[in-house]
Amino acid sequence: MKRGDSLYRRLLAWLLIPLLALGGLMVFQAWLDARQTADRAFDRLLEAASLAIAEQVQWQDDRLWLDLPPAALEMLATDAEERVFYSLVDRDGRFVTGNAELPGDERGDSDSGDTLLYRNVEWQGMTLRQGVRRSRLEDWRLRERFEIRVAHSREGRDALMAELLRANLAYILAMALLAVVVLLVAIRSALGPLTRLRRAIRARDPRTLEPLDLSLPRELAELRETLNELLARMRRVRANQERFIGDASHQLRTPLAGLSARAELALRHDDPERWREALQAMQATSARTARLAMQLLSLTRLDNPEYRPELTPLDLNDIVRQAVRDHWAGCHRRGIDLGVECAEAPVIVPGIDWQLQEALGNLIDNACRYGAHRVTLRTRLQPARLEIEDDGPGIPEGRRLLVLRPFHRGEEGSEGSGLGLAIVDSIARAHGARLALSAGPDGQGLVVRLDFREATS
Q1: I want to staple 380 with a disulfide (CB 3.0 to 4.6 A). Which of 89, 192, 385, 412 is the partner?
Q2: pLDDT tens digits for 136-145?
Q3: Edge-to-edge strands of the sheet including 374-380?
């Protein structure tokens, strides 16, 4: 089975990315600190060496003279075997003495006191750290200025920097490992309640819709309550389905039992006339049963939340004209006047043609079954409205909401199944229309209105 994205991996990634970025910054900062520490340590040696050399400069035979003590350069020599260079330069920049003619530093000038300037230089293919001390003779008769230039290669500095960096990296690595371990434990601990919730759901019987009773943190408690609300809705839906199935089975059992009784009664007689009467009764019963089955299928499909066909623009005038053509013959045989009054302009609404035809068919059939002699279909443009008016006995105002429930009949003992208006109500809700029942203009009969939200002429 292909696994999807993991919340554990996602949290780990989102927490490790900043941790790695922080670790990179810490490594870079450790490198800078190690470099600066090594430079400060060796720069102090440069300062001490240049000071020791400057103290040995004298004026002799009208020129600067230097008697360099060996200790002045030995202090710059370490186990890394750096190369050490020095030079003495007079006030005019002329080389006086030294083991190398080092370049000067033009960054500034000073007329009094000692000034020591540091810099990195490239000299004869080598990278050197140079210190330039600008000083003057301490003789009260002569204040001759001069420069002491001391430089050494970077082997010792680099070795010290590497040693300091290794120590810092070991500390950073230890902290990183500790942070990762703590992070893994924290994530697993934080996701522990979610794991318990998953296991509790997985362990439940699929037929059980009882609410979950599990102690969880506040964020997951909201998820638990949402699941419990969903389970409550599912319980209500299942209860409605079970009630619907029970009512449907009862409705179907009655005509089927009648068919069996008629057939059994006919078999007991030899009179063809009795057979004919039984067959006619069986034919009427089977027709009612077939219509009941079709209504049950329609209501089941309309109440399916996943069944959402696309609405297309329809003209209500065409819908009512087609309904009159489909039902005129049946109404004429019963002696019922079926008519239509259409709006002058097209009444365009978004809808599904077969569902609206189903709604009109149920309303016409109800009117015929409950004693109407005249049925009129109307359309209105503003607001977009579909009306069916009949002159039958009507429905008392106190029962108009009850008749919208499945299997609720307007009159006890009637031949109807009690599904017609329930189907019309479902179709109206599917179209976003408002269904209203009212008495006729003279207080007699029944007017069924479907008011649609949108209409274009």
Answers
A1: 385
A2: 887 656 778 8
A3: 337-341, 374-380, 385-390, 446-451, 434-438
The residue ranking higher by pLDDT, 31 or 111, is 31
Poorest-confidence range of 42-51, 179-188, 284-293?
284-293
DSSP 212: P
CA 165 to chain centre: 44
Q: What is the gyration radius of the CA atoms in the chain, in angstroms?
A: 51
pLDDT confidence bin for 205, thresholds 50/70/90: confident
Tokens (6 digits) for 263: 């057939």
Tokens of 439: 């008495």
3-state secondary structure of 149: strand
Nearest to 71 by CA among 55, 60, 94: 55
Cβ–Cβ < 8 Å for 266, 278: yes
Contact 86, 73 (CB under 8 A): yes
Segment 15-27, tens digit of pLDDT: 888 888 998 999 9
What separation in angstroms does the CA of 52 have from each of 46, 139, 148, 316, 445?
A: 10, 17, 10, 110, 124
Residue 86 vs residue 405, higher pLDDT? 86
Do 406 and 298 contact (CB within 8 A), yes or no?
Answer: no
Query: Using an 8 Å Cβ cutoff, are 456 and 382 in contact?
Result: no
49 Cβ neighbours under 8 A, 6+ residues apart = 72, 73, 75, 76, 86, 131, 150
In the beta sheet, which residues pair with residue 437?
448
Separation between Cα atoms, residue 449 and residue 386, nearest integer Å:
6
Cα–Cα distance measured from residue 353 to residue 321, given in angstroms and rounded to the nearest whole number:
12
pLDDT tens profile 318-360: 999 998 998 888 888 888 899 999 988 888 999 888 888 888 8
**Strand 126-136 with 115-123, pairing:** antiparallel
Contact call for residues 455 and 385 (beta carbons, < 8 A): no
What's residue 33's pLDDT? Answer: 93
Question: Which distant-in-sequence residues (6+ apart) come within 8 Å of 290 by Cβ?
Answer: none
Name the 3-class secondary structure at 37. Answer: helix
Give ∠ CA 264-268-271 in degrees, rounded to 5: 120
Please state, in angstroms and rounded to a whole number, the distance separating the CA atoms of residues 83 and 124. Answer: 13
403 Cβ contact partners less than 8 Å away, ≥ 6 residues apart: 395, 409, 410, 418, 421, 437
Is 0.70 topped by the overall pTM?
Answer: no
